[in-house]
Amino acid sequence: MVPADHSNAALLRDVPADWRKQSKEQRAAVNQHYIAAIANISGRLRRKEKARAADLPLDERLANYIIERNAGRPDSRSGKKRGKELRPWIS
């Protein structure tokens, strides 16, 4: 549905469904229409505000610190350490 007051209403009204059959102007009008619709939707969305570290209680700050420090490390429960098995005698 194209609003009657749309700037490219005449181009968008009779656009073929197959993009290969659309003229260059029609493709440009369709793209602009979709870009405007996406911008309208994303403009209405609100971003979640992240709490500042100073505003969090001490236990949450410490938990976040531990999680961030260990994020890049391999899992210690995987049974391997630096490419070597911890207990090579068990098969």
> Would you report the number of β strands?
2
Number of helices: 3
Low-pLDDT residue intervals, each spanning 5 or more residues: none
What would you call the shape? elongated
Largest sheet: 2 strands, antiparallel
Beta fraction: under 5%
- Our measurement of the CA-to-CA distance between the termini, rounded to an integer number of angstroms, reads 67 Å
Derived from helix and strand composition plus strand pairing, the structural class reads mainly alpha
Based on the model shown, name its key terms.
two-stranded antiparallel sheet; 91 residues; mainly alpha
Describe this protein's structure.
The protein is mainly α and 91 residues long. It has a domain at 9-44. The chain has three helices and two strands. The chain has helices at 9-13, 24-44, 58-70, and strands spanning 80-81, 84-85. The chain has a two-stranded antiparallel sheet. β1 and β2 (84-85) form a beta hairpin. The mean pLDDT is 76.
Itemize the secondary structure elements and their pairings.
Blueprint: H1 9-13, H2 24-44, H3 58-70, E1 80-81, E2 84-85
Antiparallel strand pairs: 1-2
What's a quick, concise take on this entry?
This protein has three helices and two strands; from the N terminus they run αααββ. The chain is mainly alpha-helical and 91 residues long.
